[in-house]
Amino acid sequence: MYEMEIFKDYLLRKPQGNRVTFIDHSDEFFQGSSRKRGRPIDLPNPMYIAIHAAIAGVMNMSGAGKFFDELLDKYKDDEGGVPPVRSWPELEQLMEKRSLSQSVTQAFQSVKVR
User: Fold this and answer.
1) What is the pLDDT of residue 51?
2) How far is 52 from 100, CA to CA, in rounded Å?
């Protein structure tokens, strides 16, 4: 069981009491069913969750979290989702593609056809 700390309120449905409990339900699949799981599912590693929480806390306190939220919001796709970015070079590549696409679109729109 983990207590959530919410820095930016965008959750559609908050868990009751801001608590999240991870439970392995793999034993609940029917015997002989095509939905049967062969082995238990590993629960999240508490150390990774603690590291994630520490990084999120530092990013929130320093203002870096807000900076990255605004930066990623700027590069949402057509459906309003933010593409997955795992590193700064991937973000730069995304920014370059968007900038090139906008430049080409503007260039075609500025040409007058007679």
Assistant:
1) 92
2) 34
**pLDDT per position as a tens digit, 14-26:** 777 778 888 877 7
Quick one: tokens of 53?
Answer: 């929480």
Residue 24 contacts residue 6 (beta carbons within 8 Å): no
Domain that holds residue 22: 2-74
Residue 36 reports pLDDT greater than 60: no
Position of tokens 């306190």? Answer: 61
Chain centroid offset of residue 56 CA: 13
Domain presence at residue 80: no
Interior CA angle at 48 toward 43 and 49, to 5°?
Answer: 75
Is residue 79, in this structure, part of any structural domain at all? no
